[in-house]
């Protein structure tokens, strides 16, 4: 995907993760327990806030834990729903915070493996004092969180360099 707003075109390679609470229909009824997060790479992206790439800082989480909330968390930023990184970054990670709210668990995260940028993509729920479970996002398309102790998920990417193909004489 490429976009341009009066300047040079910017290449964006990103995908969406839908995070939903139990029995959420994500929009048929008010989507209070459904959020779409966007993650990926873009030329010129940083590890912080990049408004020129459509990243917007979200307000602080609601003061009450009864409200469903999910966001990417970054130092000195309240949170992002869209977090893009430099495509040349070494082993980038995205930290997602999840608050189940009054709807409780399970929390379901879904994505389309076909839409992932090339490379290795691992999603790992983090539980204090536990190693958690790693999900290969290129194979699986869903993570269901049933443990209320899981309030954070880390997404780790290892980019795959473009292969170099050499053709012999006569090709």
Gist?
The protein is an all-beta fold and 171 residues long. Helix content is 0%, strand content 40%.
Q: Please mark out the parts with pLDDT under 50 across 5 or more consecutive residues, or reply none.
A: 161-167
Separation, N- and C-terminal Cα atoms: 31 Å
Helices, by number, come to 0
Structural class: mainly beta
How confident overall, as mean pLDDT?
A: 83
Q: Largest sheet, if any?
A: 6 strands, mixed
Helix/strand order, N-terminal first: EEEEEEEEEEEE
Keywords:
single chain; 171 residues; 6-stranded mixed sheet; 12 strands; globular
Description:
- Residues 161-167 have low confidence and may be disordered.
- This protein has 171 residues and is mainly beta.
- The strands form two sheets. Strands 1, 2, 3, 6, 8 and 11 form a six-stranded mixed β-sheet that branches. A six-stranded antiparallel β-sheet has the order 5-4-7-12-9-10, with no helix packed on it.
- It has strands at residues 2-3, 10-20, 34-42, 69-74, 77-80, 82-85, 93-99, 107-110, 119-126, 135-136, 142-145, 152-159.
- The two termini are 31 Å apart.
- Strand 1 (2-3) and strand 2 form a beta hairpin.
List strands and helices in order, with pairings.
Elements: E1 2-3, E2 10-20, E3 34-42, E4 69-74, E5 77-80, E6 82-85, E7 93-99, E8 107-110, E9 119-126, E10 135-136, E11 142-145, E12 152-159
Parallel strand pairs: 3-6
Antiparallel strand pairs: 1-2, 2-3, 2-8, 4-5, 4-7, 7-12, 8-11, 9-10, 9-12
